[in-house]
Specification:
With 558 residues, this protein is α+β, with helices and mostly antiparallel strands. The protein is 18% helix and 19% strand. Among the domains are: 87 residues, no CATH class; 76 residues, no CATH class; 55 residues, no CATH class; 99 residues, Immunoglobulin-like (Sandwich). One of its GO terms (biological process) is proteolysis.
Length: 558
């Protein structure tokens, strides 16, 4: 189960459109005309892209270079106008540019929701609470004194840990075992914001450098209350539907879904003489609200614009109204805990599940772990019905991916769809070509001339996406037995009448652990833009489910 030991992406420039220079991140070819400084103040090599950037400062006197990158990819972040970015793009060594984006910073009940409970069971007995797993988190900051990082009852870091605690050893303990600062120069640069904060102490954040940090609704409510209102009914937009993100607006503000808000609005507008009705609640907080889980309005949707032939997203995880650790006394809140929502809340849940799987299967590759999470995920909600979206309509695969993560099943998937370095290299060759392979793989032994080209549909991924067409389209997949040595799996297909799916062979017989079996899936159909189905390999102990998506569009070249 191989993986890239050194991943190198092309040089990426993230530039904001406009006439004023804005922060940007650039990917470049390391074989181009770049020059490295000797070392930074911590002894690390730093990229100095002097041949790419204008020599002058910006009009406001700021340096062009924001940051340079040499590890996960070779590149730099810089402040460039549109015209300057066009000039950079024409220089030798330039590979690709992406515009910078403003991102928003975004658990107590979720372990139980995910089927992870204290005491006897998988979490304690099967995965040992993830004992010995080490995870590196790249985030906008950390407050080591927060109670969530207390190490009560934890053993010292495992011997394999070779990291350090930058600044002071007192910042770390047996839970937070290492800290390193990576970014020192990303602050608020916009002119209008400088006017607001002139003469004041400003806290710099790595992302979301746009004031007022998602407080627009609070500002509106404050203005309404200042005008003398006795209270406020805050109604979701139609786009947000039934996704109600929890904020502390105060006791005189009521939040409603779009549907409930429409009823209130209709009643209020029906007659000027309608009297208000007060309802008094003497009950405790209602828990276990159904349907659950549902897809939040802000959850990312597919298809991917970069790899449209691979289904995205991969999987769902809890991310709405999560009680999370929070730094105290910051510009964003009072801390030390807050209720937050967003992909930034889903990510730690998946990271924790990965840690549990890795502790049980330390030899598994990242692709095998991803496959285990995806093929064991739940395609139905807790009532046994389809997972719904924010409008409480059936969510499609572009919203749910393979389904909602199920940690207790993920450590014992039965079969996995594995991928190694050569598999990814063949995929990159077909999608992006030789130049991209050189900067992504950073491995001279890998060459598109020596590798087969793997189309997106043929990537050994746990999902299957094919063109929707009356003519049959066939893809192949290979699964590895990670369950009992003697296992037999039978193919089970679920598909609408307008979608025909044939699997060959229809039965997979394994005689040993680690054994691989290859099968083909042939799909044909017509009607609509997207048709969805699934293929499950079923044994007496396991169900290994993969979504099948047939989407209208040009048939890919084979």
């Amino acid at each position: 189960m191989a993986s890239f030991a050194h991943a190198l992406l092309p040089f990426l420039i993230a530039a904001v459109a406009g006439l004023s220079p804005a922060p940007a991140t650039c990917y470049v070819n390391p074989g181009g005309n770049l020059h490295l400084q000797e070392q930074d103040d911590q002894g690390n090599a730093m990229l100095r892209p002097i041949s790419f950037l204008p020599t002058s400062l910006t009009d406001s006197g700021e340096p062009r270079l924001v940051h340079s990158y040499t590890e996960a990819f070779t590149g730099f972040a810089a402040r460039l106008t549109d015209a300057e970015l066009d000039a950079v793009a024409r220089k030798p060594g330039f590979v690709r540019a992406f515009p910078d984006r403003t991102l928003q910073l975004t658990t107590t009940h979720t372990p139980e929701f995910l089927g992870l409970r204290q005491g006897p069971g998988f979490w304690r007995d099967g995965a040992g609470y993830g004992k010995g797993a080490i995870f590196g988190l790249l985030d906008v900051g950390i407050y080591g004194a927060h109670p969530s990082f207390a190490d009560h009852g934890l053993a010292p870091p495992p011997p394999k840990w070779k990291g350090t605690c930058a600044g002071s050893a007192s910042r770390c303990n047996s839970k937070l075992i290492g800290v390193k600062s990576l970014e020192r120069r990303n602050c608020i640069y916009r002119g209008e914001e400088r006017k607001v904060v002139a003469g004041k102490i400003v806290i710099c954040e790595a992302v979301n450098n746009l004031l007022p940090y998602n407080t627009s609704e609070k500002s509106i409510l404050r203005d309404i209350k200042s005008a003398g209102a006795a209270g406020v009914v805050l109604i979701n937009t139609k786009a947000d539907g039934c996704t109600t993100v929890l904020y502390d607006y105060g006791s005189d503000v009521v939040q409603l879904t779009a549907a409930d808000g429409a009823k209130v609005t209709k009643y209020a507008a029906s007659s000027p003489s309608n009297s208000a009705t007060a309802v008094r609640f003497n009950h405790r907080t209602v828990l276990g609200v159904r349907p659950s889980p549902t897809v939040a309005s802000f959850s990312s949707r597919g298809p991917s614009t970069i790899t449209p032939g691979v289904l995205k997203p991969d999987v769902l995880a809890p991310g709405l109204n999560i009680l999370a650790a929070y730094p105290p006394k910051t510009l964003l809140g009072a801390g030390p805990f807050d209720v937050l929502s967003g992909t930034s809340m889903s990510t730690p849940h998946i990271s924790g599940v990965v840690a549990l799987i890795k502790s049980v299967h330390p030899d598994w590759s990242a692709a095998a772990i991803k496959s285990a999470i995806m093929t064991t995920s739940d395609a139905i909600d807790r009532n046994g019905g389809p997972i719904l979206d924010e409008q409480h309509r059936n969510a499609n695969a572009y919203a749910t991916g393979a389904g909602h993560v199920n940690p207790a099943r993920a450590t014992d998937p039965g079969l996995v769809y594995d991928l190694g370095a050569a598999d990814y290299a063949s995929y990159i060759c077909a999608l992006l070509g030789e130049a991209a392979l050189a900067v992504i793989a950073r491995d001279s032994s890998l060459s598109c001339a020596k590798l087969p080209k793997t189309p997106e549909a043929e990537l050994n991924y746990p999902t299957i996406k094919v063109p929707l067409h009356p003519a049959p389209f066939t893809v192949t997949r290979t699964v590895t037995n990670v369950g009992p040595a003697a296992s037999t799996y039978t193919a089970k297909v679920v598909a609408p009448k307008s979608l025909t799916v044939r699997v060959s062979p229809g039965k997979l017989v394994f005689t040993k652990a680690g054994e691989e079996k290859t099968f083909s899936v042939t799909v044909s159909g017509q009607g609509g833009d997207v048709l969805e189905g699934s293929l499950s390999w079923v044994s007496g102990q396991h169900v290994v489910r993969s979504p099948i998506i047939a989407a209208a569009g040009r048939r890919p070249e084979r």
